[in-house]
Structure formats: C-alpha cells, structure tokens
Amino acid sequence: MTALTISNRDARRLWLAQNLIGTHLRDPAEIIRQLGFLQIDTIRNVARAQDHILWTRIPTYHEERVWRLLKSRALFEHFTHDASLIPAEVLPYWTRRFSVLGARTARSSWFHSGLGRAEIQAIHDRIAAEGPLSTHAFDTRHEGPKEMWARPPHKKALDQMWYAGRLATAHREGFVKFYDLGERVFAGGIDHGTSEADQIGWLHARAIDALGVATPSEIYRFWAATTPAEVKGWTAQAGLVPVEIATATGGRYKALAAPDIEARLAAAPEPGSRVRLINPFDPMVRDRDRIERLFGFAYRNEMFVPKAQRVYGYYVYPLLEGARFIGRIELKADRGGDALTVTGFWPEAGLRPSKARDARVDAELDRFRRFAGLAQVVWACPRP
Fold it and tell me: How many Cβ atoms are within 10 Å of 357's Cβ, its own excluded?
C-alpha cells in the first residue's frame, strides 16, 4: 500500500484535534475517555496538573471536580506511564497490568517495606473491617536517612497492594488517597475473563485511536502496558494505514494511522490564533520527541533537575499560539499576595514582536489567574 503523505501543517492540526484543543465538549468524563486517560500529579504550583489539563479544554471547569468521577466509579486510578485516572471501560483490559505491576513491585527494593506478611495482612484486614483509609491512619515510621523519596513502611505496603489491585483508590480528598479493597472498588473485580490477547489488542487499538497517527514506539509508550514486541505483532495484522509525516524541519518520517485517517484529517478544525497555556503534564506535550518533530519545539520538564542545571525554571509552561509553540513561561501562585506571578518568560527564537500576540498572552494569563482564584497577574521579570 502506498503511504499517505501528511503535510506538517495537517499533522499539527490533526494532533491538536486528537487532543481536543478547542473542543466543544464540556463533560470531563468524555474528555478523559477520548484522551485515553488523565495523568495526575501532586504539585500545585498554580493548579494541579489534572485540573489544568481539563480546564484547558473546558473553560468552565472548577478545581477538584474530577474527584467526583473517581468516587462515582466512572474512573479508576492506576498506573500507565505514571499515576493516572482511567475510564472504567478500560478495566476489563487491565487485568494483566495489575498482575505485571503487582509482581514487579513485589520484587522491587523500592517497595520492600520491611514489614512481615502478617503485618502487611493486618493493614489489609484493617481496611477490610473499617472501610477506606488513608496513609495517615497508620503510624509506622521510616528509619534511616531522610531522603527526598523516603516513605514509611506502611506506605510502601499500601502502594504495593495498590499496584497489584488488592487495594484501590476509593476516593481522594484534596490529593489525599483513601485505599479500599480492590473488590469493593473495581466493578466485577480485576479479572473480567478477558484473554491476554484481547487485552493487548484492545489497548493497542485504543492507543492508535487516541493518537491518530503514531510510530510503533509511540503506540507502545501510550499506555506503557504492553511490550514493543507485542506492538510489532499487532501492527502487522491490524489493518493500519501507512503514512509519511512531514516534520517541522522539512524531513519526513514513517508512521501508521487509524483506518479512517483521511476523514480525521478532513474533520480536524483550523486552530485559530488563541494563545493557550499548556500544562507540562498535558497529553499533548507528554511525548517530547513527537512535539519536537511536529512543532520544532524542544521542551523538557526541569522540575526534578537540580536548580543550578536548569536551562529555564522549575515549573515552566509551554505557550501555544494556534498551531505553533511561541515560547515558555514560568508562573507561580503567590497566595499571600493573591497574585499569579510571572517569574520567567522565554519566547522562541525568531519570534517577531506583536502587540496583538502580547494581548492574547495577557488574556490567557488573566483566564488562568481567575481559574486559580487569584486577584491579579504580576510580572516579576522583564517582558520581552
């Protein structure tokens, strides 16, 4: 089959459409279903990642509304490439993931709690008897150096059982996780009788549906729940469309597309000129290599890079204007001063000054400070 050629402009337009940028959807559950899942993160620099990601697509969204969907069981929480909220429809295809992660964490020194089997079972039995409990309900203490990621023994035991599906997230209050028995949270338990082959095939098909076009490695990285060899075997018989995609620098690369790719390209809207503040954990920018190929935007998350080694800053947001990234901006919520503070701003090289663009940046910052419940935007760095 001759490969379908996709221009760089069309590839960008398609990627924005696949990520529901500019969508008219207003249902958070449907947004998450179409994206595939929603990564969650504890850091509340201005707003937590899961809330910011939904607000980018739903202007009327309010912080922490997503936890209602977790409590109602429309979503469940588990681990894709990171902690994520996953639509309940995925659960029948997640059995192997529970098994693999349960076995992996049981072998890992990271999750070795130092507690005996009876002590771990006692934690499980207490939750069985009392109902959902947070880590604060237990009082074991970490012994040894106070390292950044050090956790008490009961936390390690809770998390290992959580990965295996013996325990599950019943709900969250703020960001505090409450653990309950897996069989009480997961409808039908974690084993729905779906064959391993059907689980693998469904996850790969769902990945290409969410991505639109992808290389085999991008399909693999979407869920991080299968293996590269399993992706290769599936793509060989899945009836996908071969494509060649133009990069931002004028090159091309080969990929695969959903069977209805031409209809998707025709339906993808033009992105307009609005400036959007994108969260570092947004699915649109999660695959940094893909973003660099398609948009020519070299973005890296430096939160966990030592301060002296950062090129930009701690929590730096990509700025998207229409279908191109125009720079990055570092923001901080000054709760005491009731302000959204701009602490760094780096336009992309070659970006021409524009009063209209400046006004669009200001409008987006104003929208974001209102979402965060702050009274004003304060620039603590020079404006280019």
Answer: 18
Q: Which CATH architecture has domain 275-379?
A: 3-Layer(aba) Sandwich (3.40)
Residue 266 to residues 262, 263, 290: CA-CA distances in angstroms? 6, 5, 22
The amino acid occupying position 192 is H
3-state secondary structure of 351: coil
Query: CA-CA distance, 255 to 130, in Å (whole number)?
Result: 51
Collect all residues with Cβ–Cβ distance below 8 Å to 271 and sequence separation of at least 6.
12, 13, 16, 21, 22, 322, 323
Contact residues for 299 (Cβ-Cβ < 8 A; gap 6+): 285, 288, 291, 292, 318, 325, 328
Spatial contact of 122 and 161, defined as CB atoms under 8 Å apart = no
Q: Which residue has the tokens 């639509």?
A: 87
pLDDT at 292: 97
Nearest to 329 by CA among 251, 293, 382: 382
Tally the C-alpha atoms within 13 A of residue 306's C-alpha that lie toward its C-beta.
Answer: 2
pLDDT digits (tens, 9 = 90+) for 342-358: 999 999 999 998 999 99
With tokens 């703020």, the residue in question is 174
Which tokens is 372 given?
């965060």
Assign 357 to helix, strand or coil.
helix
Strands (E), the chain: 4-6, 38-39, 75-79, 83-87, 133-134, 167-173, 176-181, 213-214, 241-246, 252-257, 275-277, 316-321, 324-334, 339-347, 376-379
How does DSSP assign 68-133, residue by residue? HHHHTTSEEEEESSSEEEEEGGGGGG-HHHHHHHHHHHHH-GGG-----HHHHHHHHHHHHHH--E
Backbone angles phi, psi at 329, to 5 degrees: -140, 140
CA distance 337 to 340: 9
Q: Which tokens is 383 given? A: 């404006």
Rg (CA), the chain: 22
- Per-residue pLDDT tens over the stretch 132-143: 999 999 986 545
pTM of the model: 0.94
